[in-house]
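Lab notebook, bench 4. We co-purified these components, and the gel suggests they stay together. Before we commit to crystallization screens, I want a quick structural picture of the whole thing.
Request: model the full complex, all chains together.
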Amino acid sequence: MRLFEKPFRRMRQKLRFSFDGVEVEAFEGETLAAALSAADVRDFRTARHGDSRGMFCGMGVCFECLVTVDGRHNVRACMEPAVEGACVSRQVYPGGPGGPGGTAGAPEIRKPDLLIVGAGPAGLSAALAARDDALDVVVIDERAKAGGQYFKQPNSGLVPPDGLGVDAQYREGASLMRKVREAGIEIVQDAVVWGAFAPLGIAVVAGGSNIVYEPRSVIVATGAYERGVPTPGWTLPGFMTTGAIQSLLRSHRVVPGRRVVVGGNGPLNIQVAAELHKAGATVVAVVEAAPVTSPGRFGPLLGALSANPGLLLAGFRYVARLKAAGIPIHYGHVVTGATGDKGVRSVSIAPVDGDGRIDRQRSLTLETDIVCVGYGFEANDEIPELLGAEAVIDPTTSRRRILVDDTYQTRIDGLYMIGDALGLRGSRVALAQGAIAGAAARERLGGRARDDAATRKAARRLSRNTRFQDRLWQLFKAPDMLTRLAAEDTVVCRCEGVSMAQVRKEADAHASIGNVKRATRAGMGRCQGRYCGPVIERLIADAGGYVPSPHGVMAPRPPIKPILISDIAREPDVD
Amino acid sequence: MTDPGQQVETDVLVIGGGIAGCSSAMYLARDGVPVVLLEQHDLHTGASGANAGNLHQQILTARTVPLGWDWVGYYAGMVRFYMAAVGQWQELKTELDVDIELQVLGGISVAENEADMAVVARKAELERANGGDSIVLSRDDLRRMAPYLSERLAGGCYSPGEGKANPLLAVSAVSRLAARHGARFLKQEKALGIERSDSGYLVTTTKRRIRCKRIVLAAGPGAPELAGHLNVAIPIRTSIIQTAVTEAAAPVMSHLLYHVSRPLTMKQVSNGNVVIGGGWPGYSSPATGHPLVRRESIAASTWIAQSVVPAVSRMRLLRAWAACTFTAADGFPICGAVPGEPGFYLVISNGYGFTMGPLLGCIINEIVTGRQPSMDASRLRVGR
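Here is the predicted assembly.
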């Protein structure tokens, strides 16, 4: 379903392409996934074991939405623009070699003073703070448009006049981007970082160009991706992340179906449900794992209200909008599975207690085309990890956390890390961290000294919003469902089609994650272990024999994202 | 698992849980020798867990011809061992509890020009003189045998007995076989010191002291430091090399491939991924000391790969990783008793460690148990 509301109504250029021989209508600026979703196509490919797959992450991470475009295999539908006359087809595993071929030649070496990786709230804020006439500051960003997940802007075909948009979130993002551009800071879009090499080399492919940045300082603001929680039926087309459906909505004004169930844990799901309802989708139910309305949550609620009343009231408005529409919000419930043949037809939900025990006696079945689920995020921390930045295992999350000082500098001189990549704290915290790290980097590089008043202001914003986030997550505190929902035959490694039973068999007390990987192939596919890695680590830890190491075997290796050989291959120097 | 602190006594202690150590423990245990294997991390986490799983019988000329033909001429003596080593894997395969995807489909060193063809002629002759079965291929032969190769190539050298196995499955299968024959494993336990005792050796680890009559040291790059406790010098050089792998794709190539004058080994594994190696240098992280890959090595190795099989340039690279490798100056493994240290044995492989692992395990078992080795292992002697 495509939305045609103001101010986007009259700005569209229609085009057509074919999908398995059937004509599909699209609009300029849409991705293939957006256009196919608008046409109610969910099934994009056949996976390793013959099962159907569709869009899952919607942000280029999971490699589930692969299609063949004009003979090119392995094209991510969520990243590929729809173009007039393209011949697109469902892909059958594994596909042939996919790219255009050729070789890249010598990389262009660029040496700015400061390189900021990621143009979301944290990166853009850091760029503004670092601006100095004496410094060459460059921002690189993986997407076609700046803004990251939070400030994601409408696609190029929707081009609203500057400052317009359908809500304040669009407008705030557009305004921040305009300030960065007016400051003369270059933002390079479509720039995929594929490697990081000590001391501070960042290897990039940007629009087919092979570039190596060797800056004096790097600020990593690479954000996060949604954690995958293996659930029966989660590989069915129509089962996707909350972020995926939000991207379709905010970038393309597309809803990928008629009926939607929103589930998982955290305030984002409620916001997205309210936006989907406003956009005209039938939101069947919201399923929230945390018992947000239980009496014990009153304290955190008051705490969040006092820390940032504006943000909490915005949350209340989303809830009120859902209530007014008669949309049930099932607190203390989880989506326990989805069923359907080549796509989701129904989901089951059930109550969950504080220890993660599911009461299947009180299970409900809901008819729906789409279920989107968000259970929190995993950090994109590959760059500091590859550069050797010191890290610890966070005892509360059991995930790797890069160590930073009070200016967000890692233990590596000149390497900073900010925003959700450092642990999910939302856009307000990211903006404040960006201001602090940007100013610190500027001073370190010989630009203007830090302005005490500005630093204090950022520090105040940071502390207020950190407090807000802490209270908010106490309010939304839920049992960790990471390994609790999957049945024995549920796929854990989506890429290689490895089941929970297969992984469990290897993930015993004496296992290392490397040997589980070797024995089962889990984690060796295109998503590079981003979804199954945390699950396997948890299984081994739960088996009791594993001490997680911050530099474990699931540690990232170049390429950080799969990269076409023709984009980086270079004839060796003959000496 | 044995509890920390608990005394352990055994006849043979194998130090090092890679393919060489696990094979040694397996053959010893199968012959009824009480064996304990000690590994500082998990099994197969060094070079054995990071290699490409190639079964080599050819000389990698791109890396060896620059050392001089005299060197290559002596090193060609390894071909005899490589021929036997692939046979050893095929025999061992039948005893393992999983399919290790072992396939012998032959290997080709490709030549780009007349200079390469001259190298091919000379190397094929050396290989044949040392028990190999290399065949020189003309341009037309190459086209017929491997139509997927670049049309630019001038010919090559074919070795029918080469192949591949899945090292991810194979090395752990060997360790499980060793356990079935009675070998015991002490993992996450590092040897800190070795001293002589009345009845053999006393090894101090991070968790206990181990009494053993004999030691088989198979600790790869860690071996020189451990042997140093007994004032035994092991002349090996270590270096960090890297390997890369593409996404899975429909079958493109069937052979194990080399380039005669540019460093490359490449093959497509059963799963469909193309593994690209050739001894390209990685580096050691200045911050953590972990082996890491070099950008220049990724760019160069993938360039050579796509120059040999053009379809490779249209594939995505999925991962590249680095590991520490080690070799003696003459390129031969070290396998045998240490003179002057009764009961102390070394098994240190060479650059083709995966290929050689089971054969070296078999040879050291014969030496430790006092039998005549089934093939002349004098060139592998310690202190040769």
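The CA atoms of residues 271 and 315 of chain A lie 7 Å apart. Worth comparing against the SEC data before the next meeting. Chain A touches chain B through 57 residues (CB under 8 Å).
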